[in-house]
Amino acid sequence: MIQAIVLDWAGTTVDYGSLAPIIAFQKAFSHFGITITTDEIRQDLGLDKRTHVEKMFADPAIQAQWQANNPGESLAAGIDQVYARFQVKIDDVLVEYAALKPGVKDLANFMQAQHIKLATTTGYTQAMLDRILPVAAAQGYAPKVNLTAEQTNGIGRPAPDMLLAALAQLQVTDPRAVLKVGDTITDILEGKAAHAISVGVVIGGNLIGLPEIAFDALPTGEKDRRVSHARQALYAAGADYVIDTLADLPALITALNTLVPYQAQPAPLLLTPGPLTTSPAVKRTMLIDHGTWDDEYKALTETVRQELLSVAQAPAADYTTILMQGSGTFAVEAALGTAVPHKTGCC
């Protein structure tokens, strides 16, 4: 049974698109003559903010810009000054982007009804979190246990320290009965490091990174492509489950609570060609049904088809790919039948 949920803040429960940190980081770096792209910021979003600045300063291009614009100043001084400037700039925009994302209050009500405990961890500093908490509470969302890296001796994500400290305050002893829910790769890694169940959130999160109005205005095909790309990134990071929005979380919790706990089989591992032993995570994932005509499934299929062309170095103007279902032997025969000239054969 799920005993607790540990939620992220920006991009998960507030700040649709996780925009406030992007704006603040860009303004902080720009103040010192450094141009930094949104993608460069987003790849490590979710870390505590000083560590994030340090990681960006590890980029030789950013180092070169700092040294060119600030001769005589060390990189360590640059980190200190950019981080200090970030704190000023985030304070300017934090509350502006603190609106709750859709589904947050309904999720909180569901958790209360199901007696599921709630905590949060964040890459925010304590001062930032202190600004957010009353704004969120005024909107009906008021978690009682909220951890920053300042409460764990400066150790933030992707280490498990904040999450484990939150569980200690909740008096939950088994992290396997806990969902860690967030929109960044760092959130997923935090959950895995704590041995919790990691759940990624796609829409309105960091990996899509668009305001709600801009996302809703996308053509359906482009919207599906971005959602599929974000899903793949979260699963690749180790997510046990990925949901579109927090509105999908109650159904996932209900499904998990009805599953028979996995028990290791006494049979030997299957290492033969064909069926192989699968992990508990794979077995849990396979319990969720997907419709082959769902937009999400079609978008994923199209992505796989295009990536196969890329692997084969085959131009899309001349070639296409067709996904066929069958055994490994079937796949080998299909590949030979397609790639080997019929007249010469392969032997």
Task: Determine the N-to-C terminus distance.
Answer: 57 Å
Considering DSSP H and I runs of 4 or more, what fraction of the residues is helical? 40-55%
Write out the CATH superfamily name of the largest domain.
HAD superfamily/HAD-like
What is the CATH class of the largest domain? Answer: Alpha Beta
Q: What is the ordering of alpha helices and beta strands?
A: EHHHHHHEHEHEHEHHEHHHH
* Biggest β-sheet strands, sense, barrel: 6 strands, parallel
Rounded radius of gyration (Å): 23 Å
Oligomeric description of these chains:
single chain
Structural class: alpha/beta
| Cα shape | globular
Number of helices: 15
Instruction: Write down the overall mean pLDDT.
Output: 89
In CATH terms, what is the architecture of the largest domain?
3-Layer(aba) Sandwich
Share of β-strand residues: 5-15%
GO cellular component, one term: cytosol
Protein name: Phosphonoacetaldehyde hydrolase
Keywords: Aminotransferase, Hydrolase, Magnesium, Metal-binding, Pyruvate, Schiff base, Transferase
Family: Belongs to the HAD-like hydrolase superfamily. PhnX family.
Summed up, what is this model?
Its EC number is 3.11.1.1. The protein is of the alpha/beta class.
